[in-house]
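Sample entry (149 residues):
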Amino acid sequence: MARIRHIAIATKDIEKAKKFYMDVFGMQMVRRTDRPTHVGYILTDGYINLAILNFLDDGAAGREFGSEYTGLHHIGFQVDDIEASATKVATAGGRIRSDIDAAFGPTKKQAGRGDGEFKYSDPNGVLFDLSQGGWGITPAASDAMAGAH
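Predicted structure, serialized as tokens:
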């Protein structure tokens, strides 16, 4: 079963966005991300992460957005089996975004650990990524989630 693991927002002012979502919604910071392709913060509500990203590279942002884009960027799904999910995506009319993957350079090993994803777009062009390992969230949230299943 697929689970939404993160929603990504692109912004040029990551500090302002981080403060807004923490102050207004009580989100907690999981970590800061600082890579050649993007910088930002990963916040959580305990169930779903919010990635606040400033893309530094047009390729990583995707050609339809570019690094200057601000707004909702993509949804991240954690899946049990990346290859089976990729087949379902293709069968349903989605397509792999190897252009974006090339900018990030993920590997299957990374995706299995949760620190890498593979980018796709749905038939309408909406970006999403698949990761087998998902992303870490706060320990308290992990405990709450385990009790909910």
